[in-house]
Description:
Blueprint: H1 9-31, H2 69-73, H3 77-84, H4 88-95, E1 99-100, E2 103-110, E3 123-128, E4 131-137, H5 141-146, E5 150-155
Antiparallel strand pairs: 1-2, 2-4, 2-5, 3-4
Helix pairs in contact: 3-4
Amino acid sequence: MKEAAVFDDSTRRRFVAGVVSVRAVGLAGCLGGRPGNETGSSGKLGETGGSETQTATAPTESSPTTVTDTAREHLGNGLVGLVEADSRSAYADSAGVAYDEGHVRIVVELGSEGNLPSSPTVDVKNRHESLVEGRAAVEDLPALAAADEVSYVRSRRQ
């Protein structure tokens, strides 16, 4: 005995077309950035207004920076690579560097004075004698390493 088909051919075609169109719309939304970050004429997050044309863009990593020879002498190899990397997130993952949203966990070895430079800033988490553990912006690492008060800057492993 032959069982009755649940869907006839036209129903099956409409179902497949519907699934394909939903996936296409979803993919188009993903490629267009994060629409929740758009602001409209009211200035409120997630709201667009009137006839304004807006383009949502996904956040990008900062462009790679070249490290000077002076800074390179006082900066760990993993951090030099991170500063110069095209994709800092990918580099940090492969190198085991604790990187998050443009900042990296570091250990700073201070010189004989034992003081951190006032600029660039380091978010200090822990300190013991001439060693300071903290977080700093990746773009600030070459300037930090080149500061007179700093002997060496290395990454704090994840």
